[in-house]
Amino acid sequence: MSLASLLHRLARPGLVTAALAAGALVLTTTSATAAPALTQISADPYTNSTSRHATEVEPDTFSYGSTIVSAFQVGRFTDGGASNVGFATSRDGGATWTRGFLPGITTQAGGTFQRVSDASVTYDAKHNVWLISSIPITSSVSVPEVYTSRSTDGGLTWSNPVVTATGSSLDKNWIVCDNTATSAFYGNCYTEYDNNGDSDRIKMTTSSDGGLTWGASKNTGNNATGLGGQPVVQPNGTVVVPIANASETAIRAFTSANGGSSWTSATTVATVSTFTVGGSLRSGPLPSAEIDSAGKVYVVWQDCRFRASGGSCTSNDIVMATTTNGTTWSAVTRIPIDATTSTVDHFIPGLAVDPATSGGTAHLALTYYYHPVANCTASTCALDVGYVSSTNGGSTWTTPTQLAGPMTHSWLASTTQGTMVGDYISTSFSGGTAHPVFAVATAPSGSSFNEAMYTPAAGLTAAAGTAAVTPATARDNAFSARLAAIAYVQWLANGGTEGGEDSP
């Protein structure tokens, strides 16, 4: 297919405790409010010479009632995976935390695999069990299985893992459960992953017994490919799965209304255009998805369609699209963290929606990383963590708060795809306040890194804010489609396969 044809098709509609003590958390944007105190909730204890210590990256979180559980990679390998998956659990709404590491997966904790990656956490209310999904990896970076670890004591201790799915080269898993007691599928849990050995074919598998056993993996109705899906479950039991396509040039979505017996075809939510984050930081336009109490789904990702200059991007915004049924989506809107004329680049978002709110009064909290100056190098980039919120369903947002930074890229774990804080981060509400978890790094001590998991010492309040979202114009969307087409052509020229988070 010619580039012109691609452009035409894609243009169609539809298509830091130590840091705080050292005074390192200095404001780097004039509009940001003062940084809150942070609590370190975990640290890398391992000493194996094959991975980078002390490093922790890529957290997910989930909350239910006053319990918050986070899971993340610990001891990152340069070419994929980590020495283990760590967890940090709060039973009192984020006031105190219990930390630990999953047993029975890697050789660091009684298992047989050299590495593990891609931690995702959820809670199954029907069976009163917490679940962490992960992918074990052999020393040759072959990824043969998806695992599920279970906790029946509120996330304080965890079982040896059970096999969720098998394959040859699996990637980017995510887990969720149906926690609505009136749903016909109450107690079903769903794991999404992709088969990188099959062009990132999207797979879904279902458990109805608290994650003890899992059904056969199923494709979407059109055998779609993609990665980075984040399934959510509506109160009526419908599962909605926003996901990036395999070339990360579009956000797509598919659904199941029958408890995972079958899945619809994946359709396009929006094309994606991205600015390459400076300093070789590992980052991509993977979605972060959340749902309110009425079943409205919110999806955010990094995108540069609002920052076009001279036919190219100058930096990324965080943008959002919503749906009430998983098939019809709103127009893309820009979350107004700062002016489009600013030099700030925003990326790696972690969105939360307060599950006690909905619709026009839904409380949203967004945590993200940013460079105050987008046009920077590995030696000059200053990496920060920011936070904004909304109490009207995302119509208006607060001015940003700087949560951490600035960090130098050389303080971060190195990977074959750039220095790393995570391909995703996460935020969850508990007791009406937001609790993000993210990686914060300070200067290494000799050959040892200081990159660990942190959260604000107190929950962050969601506020109304006055900065209104910006809808994308036809020009913005046409620009996005053109850039997506160019990126797709480049992807095809490179063999037409996504490398995957932990592929060789």
Could you walk me through the main structural features you see in this protein, from its secondary elements to its overall organization?
The model is unreliable at 1-30 (pLDDT under 50). 60% of the residues are buried. The strands form 10 sheets. The chain has a 5-stranded antiparallel beta sheet, with no helix packed on it. Strands 1-32-31-30 form a 4-stranded antiparallel beta sheet. A 4-stranded antiparallel beta sheet has the order 2-3-4-5, with no helix packed on it. With 504 residues, it is mainly beta. The radius of gyration is 21 Å and the shape is globular. The chain is built from 3 helices and 34 strands. Strand 30 (426-430) and strand 31 (433-445) form a beta hairpin.
Give a brief rundown of this model.
With 504 residues, the protein is mainly beta. It has helices at 3-10, 17-21, 474-493; strands at residues 38-40, 56-64, 67-76, 82-90, 98-101, 115-124, 129-137, 145-151, 162-166, 170-177, 189-195, 201-207, 232-233, 239-244, 250-256, 267-271, 288-291, 297-303, 308-309, 312-313, 317-323, 333-334, 345-353, 364-371, 383-390, 396-397, 401-407, 413-415, 418-420, 426-430, 433-445, 448-456, 467-468, 470-471. Helix 1 (3-10) crosses helix 3.
